[in-house]
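Lab notebook, bench 4. The sequencing result for the construct came back, and we need a structural model before the next group meeting so we can plan mutations. Quick request posted to the team channel:

Model the 3D structure of this chain.
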Amino acid sequence: MKHYRFTIVYEQDEDGCIIALCPALQGCYAEGETEEEARSNIREAIEAHIESRIAHGDPIYTEIHSEAISLAL
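Done. Here's the predicted structure in C-alpha coordinate form:
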Protein backbone atom coordinates (compact mmCIF):
# COMPACT_ATOMS: atom_id res chain seq x y z
CA MET A 1 0.00 0.00 0.00
CA LYS A 2 1.40 3.38 -0.98
CA HIS A 3 0.87 6.41 1.26
CA TYR A 4 0.06 9.83 -0.16
CA ARG A 5 0.17 13.29 1.41
CA PHE A 6 -1.76 16.24 -0.03
CA THR A 7 -2.44 19.84 0.93
CA ILE A 8 -6.12 20.68 1.31
CA VAL A 9 -7.43 24.25 1.02
CA TYR A 10 -10.69 25.12 2.77
CA GLU A 11 -12.87 27.99 1.63
CA GLN A 12 -16.30 29.20 2.66
CA ASP A 13 -18.76 30.13 -0.06
CA GLU A 14 -21.35 32.90 0.11
CA ASP A 15 -23.97 30.47 1.48
CA GLY A 16 -21.71 29.33 4.34
CA CYS A 17 -20.87 25.97 2.78
CA ILE A 18 -17.27 24.77 3.28
CA ILE A 19 -15.41 23.85 0.09
CA ALA A 20 -12.35 21.57 0.37
CA LEU A 21 -9.95 21.63 -2.58
CA CYS A 22 -6.95 19.40 -3.31
CA PRO A 23 -4.78 21.49 -5.67
CA ALA A 24 -2.41 18.62 -6.54
CA LEU A 25 -5.31 16.58 -7.95
CA GLN A 26 -6.87 18.79 -10.58
CA GLY A 27 -10.65 18.96 -10.23
CA CYS A 28 -10.69 17.11 -6.91
CA TYR A 29 -12.88 18.95 -4.43
CA ALA A 30 -15.72 18.33 -1.99
CA GLU A 31 -18.02 20.35 0.20
CA GLY A 32 -19.82 20.10 3.49
CA GLU A 33 -21.94 22.10 5.88
CA THR A 34 -19.06 22.05 8.38
CA GLU A 35 -15.28 21.84 8.07
CA GLU A 36 -15.38 18.33 9.58
CA GLU A 37 -17.91 17.18 6.96
CA ALA A 38 -15.89 18.78 4.15
CA ARG A 39 -12.73 17.07 5.49
CA SER A 40 -14.44 13.67 5.49
CA ASN A 41 -15.85 14.25 2.00
CA ILE A 42 -12.51 15.37 0.50
CA ARG A 43 -10.81 12.25 1.88
CA GLU A 44 -13.40 10.11 0.06
CA ALA A 45 -13.01 12.21 -3.10
CA ILE A 46 -9.21 11.86 -3.02
CA GLU A 47 -9.44 8.08 -2.54
CA ALA A 48 -11.84 7.78 -5.50
CA HIS A 49 -9.67 10.09 -7.62
CA ILE A 50 -6.50 8.07 -6.94
CA GLU A 51 -8.25 4.72 -7.46
CA SER A 52 -9.57 5.95 -10.82
CA ARG A 53 -6.13 7.18 -11.93
CA ILE A 54 -4.55 3.84 -10.96
CA ALA A 55 -7.27 1.88 -12.79
CA HIS A 56 -6.70 3.95 -15.95
CA GLY A 57 -2.91 3.86 -15.69
CA ASP A 58 -2.72 7.62 -15.23
CA PRO A 59 0.08 9.17 -13.18
CA ILE A 60 -0.52 10.46 -9.68
CA TYR A 61 1.33 13.72 -9.30
CA THR A 62 3.20 14.39 -6.11
CA GLU A 63 3.11 17.74 -4.44
CA ILE A 64 6.50 19.45 -4.45
CA HIS A 65 5.83 22.54 -2.38
CA SER A 66 3.01 24.75 -1.20
CA GLU A 67 3.29 28.40 -0.33
CA ALA A 68 1.05 31.19 0.88
CA ILE A 69 1.65 34.62 -0.61
CA SER A 70 0.23 38.03 0.26
CA LEU A 71 -0.73 40.67 -2.29
CA ALA A 72 -1.87 44.24 -1.85
CA LEU A 73 -3.95 45.46 -4.76
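Residues 9-55 form one domain.
Will bring this to the meeting.
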